Amino acid sequence: MIRASNISRRIGGLSDLSLEVPAGACTAIIGPNGAGKSTLLDLLAGRSAADSGSVSFGGKPIADWAPVALARRRAFLPQSLEVAFPIRVMDLVMLGRSPYHGKTSAREDRAAAETALRLTDAWQLRDRSYQRISGGERQRVQLARVIAQVWRLREDSEPRMLLLDEPTASLDPGHRLAVMRLLRDLTIAGIGVVLALHDLNDAARFADRVVLLHQGRIISEGGPEAALQAEVLSSAYGAEAQVIRTADAAPVIVFR
After folding, report:
1. Domain 1-73+158-256 belongs to what topology?
2. 60-61 and 52-57 as β-strands: parallel, antiparallel, unpaired?
């Protein structure tokens, strides 16, 4: 669904990188600080342009998409997003439905926002001020907003993609696992997910594909079993990595 071909960007340090992000799958981008994860997500989302190379979405150059049409198919959640004005949580999530103005009914838009809030366990926050909830609650509300942006009440064949930069960073362990399970469920519903993660064990457990960046280049990619090898992880992170197999054969990565 998203294809990057030989992209480079001096600001962010990406160099001659090629990548395909499939539809209906969860792709985790991992790597040490400064590896280029956020820069790559920005380019894949079409929020910034590469110095060289190309990015396409749904087989079409991403720069050729009309912004509103692209926004109905692709939603992006950055690491942090400040909201400088007072707003109720439900109203903030409804902003995710802005690209559908004139395309869907108010009832459909409200239903999409309500569904997204329930999926992210943020329904009980709907009437509260966004400025008066905790950082972890804000993270779940912002996730609900981008889910509402790509949510469909009727089946269609349009490609849809969520691009998320550290979506679990502010969450407690219970909500972190719930969000990762939710993202897997969304891929089953046909929504592609690509996310930057620091937690390698979440990548190993929940991702269909893992992309390991180091100094702006891909040094390992594939299924978790293939991409998360101890030797390459040790090299990338500068610490000795050990991959342990649990009873259900899921890899657990430990650094020492």
Report:
1. Rossmann fold (3.40.50)
2. antiparallel
